[in-house]
Write a structure and sequence with these properties.
The structure holds two protein chains of two kinds. Chain A is an alpha/beta fold. Chain A is built from twelve helices and 15 strands. Chain B is built from nine helices and nine strands. Classes of the chains: A alpha/beta, B alpha/beta. Chains A and B meet through helix 3, helix 4 and strand 9 of A and strand 1, strand 2, helix 2 and helix 4 of B.
């Protein structure tokens, strides 16, 4: 079924599943929830073809705990869900972080809170990037903006999870999961070729018995684990930040957006560029670790940023932290599953652009600058 | 001189942290003896619960992986699906398996997961200090039922093992107790059978062990043994609840 090298037209949810299989994932545990039902459906057919195992669990709680068990045994393992289901998985995700277990979690965000709706949204940015469950921990969060990137990031997610022994979340939305695009898949990886893991529980044969635990009753011991995690997160922040810039060289205003919102923003930027507005895009590809330094450096040159999200404003807090007052940070968001058009976003961009008199000013004016007096 | 008793290989030489009279230390030892006798220590993985037995990995000398409260059989499902030739067991209390983990338990049994569950029923939440459990008897006091459990307000004691009998994937279910030497022998036999069911790939097996908690029952140890006979086993009767193993009793199993 896997036809590597050639372009294949595939739906995002299927791309996530196929890329996981090619990355050596042989275990998937899931539970139906729209808009990602095509992931468990795909895996239920695909995994048996490669000798893998698919289990439809009785709940998201059970499925994430099955992921914990398979990861303890050393397997590459994945689950996926959408917002309300991810809320239920948060207990297990905290345990994955505390037990230092690798796992990949797909999250196709839908509008919320509560049961919400099944339309594309980005309103779980906080939940994904702040840990989401209890305790001092972080998930690595990758935000694809196309089906090809979803494929590449899924493969990378398994490598990052194993490298850092940490859960990795693929943060998409209903749009990424449902749309069809041509994808070139990588060569399949044989899980047997992966380096052995020296921490798994596979029976105490020829070695002392091991226990994988996160209960550390002595606060000093617990603190040591927390500091160990902090060092790990520092290393991830140093080495794994990823982002893309688009038309930023001469930009006087830069839009900051991720995933589906970034695609819409690109369309909007093309439109305002045609009108002569000097506008670019910075797209975080890793939401945690967040591209703090690239944004900080950009804010020394570009004094006006417009954060655009399909939420009431979540990533904008990280943007403000990154620029630390060096630039004016504007925000435009549509929550609740509303997907704005490039025209609508172009209108917002030009609104901020002209309001700040950027059509007249040089790009080196300070925050609040640009002719307002 | 004849040696009549020794520490099982699968039991670490650590002093149990359990309260005096607690059944956990007996049940731990029985599990370790069975693992030794079946010679499966090197391919056995245990999943301890959240509860008094959360520290079981300090005593059982096998690989162990800690589960969140109630999720032991889901974690065990993940382990066993990867390690098909290994032996995976859970060790869970009544709150863990019959309250917060009810769904995980019923569905693991219903899928016929080739797992062995040791369900320690002492009718109370021990580690958190004696609150009402799903298995607390009517009229029985706890820190959250100070005047005793009232069915109309608190529900009646839940017979989880009986519920599991209707699941097609469950093959062997037995309720035993560790309140007398005779019952301890029966408990060991049941635990051994529940591991054998997994070794033979027959399906889901669970042994419910009525276990004394003198501390939270506010009783002496001997009084707690007697209370299991006179009161607790009237609500949770001992015996085989389901047996579709087709095994004839094997000689030597009584040892």
């Amino acid at each position: 079924m896997s036809d590597t090298g050639a372009k294949r037209l595939m739906r995002g949810s299927h791309v996530l599943g196929e890329a996981a299989v090619l990355a050596g994932c042989r275990y998937y545990f899931g539970y139906p929830i729209t808009p990602q039902n095509e992931v468990p459906e795909y895996m239920s057919g695909r995994l048996p073809e490669v000798g893998g195992t698919f289990v439809q669990a009785e709940s998201e709680l059970a499925s994430i705990n099955m992921v914990i068990g398979a990861s303890m045994a050393g397997a590459r393992v994945m689950t996926s869900s959408s917002s309300p289901g991810i809320s239920l998985k948060q207990e297990g995700i905290s345990y994955l972080a505390g037990l230092e277990l690798p796992a990949v979690i797909g999250n196709m965000i839908r509008g919320g809170p509560g049961l919400g709706n099944i339309a594309p949204a980005q309103s779980d940015y906080f939940q994904a990037t702040r840990g989401g469950g209890h305790g001092d921990y972080r998930c690595i969060v990758l935000a694809p903006a196309s089906c090809q990137e979803l494929c590449d990031m899924t493969v990378k997610a398994f490598d990052l999870a194993d490298k850092y022994r940490n859960p990795v979340m693929i943060l998409g939305d209903g749009m990424i999961g449902q749309m069809m695009e041509p994808v070139v898949f990588p060569q399949p990886l044989d899980p047997a070729s992966l380096p052995p893991k020296d921490w798994t529980i596979t029976g105490a044969k020829g070695r002392p018995a091991r226990a994988i635990i996160s209960l550390l009753l002595d606060p000093k011991v617990m603190e040591n684990l927390n500091f160990k995690l902090v060092r790990k997160y520092d290393a991830i922040s140093q080495h794994e930040v990823d982002w893309e810039t688009y038309l930023t060289e001469d930009a006087r205003l830069v839009v900051v957006a991720f995933g589906t919102a970034a695609r819409i923003a690109k369309g909007a930027i093309k439109r305002v560029r045609d009108m002569g507005l000097k506008v670019g895009l910075l797209r975080p590809k890793t939401l945690w670790p967040f591209p703090m330094r690239p944004l900080e450096q950009m804010s020394r040159v570009v004094r006006h940023l417009l954060c655009f999200e399909m939420s009431a404003g979540q990533m904008v807090e990280d943007v403000r932290l990154a620029v630390n007052g060096q630039a004016d940070v504007h925000f435009y968001g549509r929550p609740g599953g509303v997907v704005p058009t490039p025209e609508e976003v172009a209108h917002q961009i030009s609104h901020y652009y002209y309001q700040a008199h950027l059509d007249q000013a040089g790009p080196d004016k300070g925050p609040g600058g640009g002719g307002r007096s | 001189m004849k040696q009549v008793s020794t520490r099982p290989k699968s039991l670490k030489p650590n002093i149990f942290h359990y309260c005096p009279g607690c059944g956990h230390s007996i049940i731990h030892r029985l599990v370790a003896e069975v693992i030794d006798e079946l010679d499966i220590r090197e391919r056995t993985i245990g999943v301890p619960p959240a509860g008094c037995a959360v520290l079981a990995y300090n005593y059982l000398d096998v690989d162990m992986g800690e589960a969140p409260h109630g999720r032991a059989l889901a974690v065990a499902t993940g382990l066993k699906r990867v390690l098909k030739d290994h032996v995976v067991f859970t060790y869970q209390g009544d709150g863990d398996i019959a309250a917060i983990g009810t769904a995980e338990t019923i569905h693991a049994a219903n899928r016929g997961e080739k797992l062995t569950a040791i369900f320690v029923n002492n009718g109370v939440y021990g580690m958190t200090g004696g609150q009402m459990a799903p298995t607390t008897l009517e009229g029985m006091g706890s820190t959250t039922t100070p005047g005793g459990r009232v069915a109309a307000r608190d529900g009646s004691p839940l017979d989880l093992t009986q519920m599991l009998a209707v699941a097609k994937g469950s093959v062997y279910l037995e309720r035993v107790a560790v309140n007398s030497p005779k019952n301890i022998k029966k408990t060991k036999k049941a635990i051994k059978k529940a591991f054998q069911v997994q070794l033979d790939g027959l399906g889901f097996a669970l042994v419910e062990v009525l276990s004394p908690c003198p501390t939270n029952w506010r009783m002496s140890a001997p009084a707690s043994w007697e209370w299991i006979d006179t009161t607790m086993s009237k609500i949770f009767p001992l015996g085989v609840i389901k047996d579709e193993t087709g095994y004839a009793d094997r000689p030597g199993d009584e040892s």
